Amino acid sequence: MREGHMLSRERIDAIVRHYGRDILEHEHMEIERRSLQHGDVTTYEHSLRVARLSVAIADRLHLWRHVDLRALVRAALLHDYFLYDWHDYDGGSHRMHGFRHPYTAEANARADFELDDIVSNSIRTHMFPLTPIPPRYLEGVIVNVADTVSAVRETLASRLSRWKRADAARRGSTLRP
């Protein structure tokens, strides 16, 4: 990557597709496409957003000489590879989802893909400080930050949308005779 030149969205998308094609095309991604993550955003969409934002963070902070781009993209795409919708009732096992899902995601990713230590550690620690051990690698720190930013954006956007709909409905109901 060139110093002083920010990547376009198209270039970021191309990088994510290049390093994550096998993940994005894997049959288990269909589960992520059907499972909600934050608000009305699916786990698939969320993972893709985290991957794009991770690459953008590395770019904006000029970290190209300090990160393994392939590992960064793969960790971001697989960080929530837990393969269930945690909103579905399951008798209570999803109750601790925020604390447990990184370990489930890592195990599932390990079963479907070959993981190096950077990817594995980044998946396992992406919920720090909810998970007690911090990321060991810069890639994990970036995924952690990108995941947090994405989750906040997605949750707030969903709530804002609901508030606007409720407000419009409330206003509409007061105009009726």
Q: Describe it for me?
A:
This protein is mostly helical. A hairpin with a 2-residue loop joins strand 1 (about 35-40) and strand 2 (about 40). It has a two-stranded antiparallel sheet. Helices cover about 65% and strands about 5% of the residues. The termini are far apart. The chain has seven helices and two strands, in the order ααββααααα. Helix 1 (about 10-25) crosses helix 4 (about 70-80).
Overall 3D form: globular
Whole-number mean pLDDT: 87
Please, how many helices? 7
Tell me the quaternary state. single chain
Q: Strand share of the residues? A: under 5%
Approximate helicity band: 55-70%
The succession of helices and strands, N to C, reads HHEEHHHHH
- Uncertain parts: none
Radius of gyration: 18 Å
Give the neighbour order of strands across the main sheet: 1-2
Give the distance, in angstroms, between the N- and C-terminal Cα atoms: 63 Å
Q: Give a quick account of the main beta sheet: strands, pairing sense, barrel closure.
A: 2 strands, antiparallel
Strand count: 2
Coarse structural class: mainly alpha
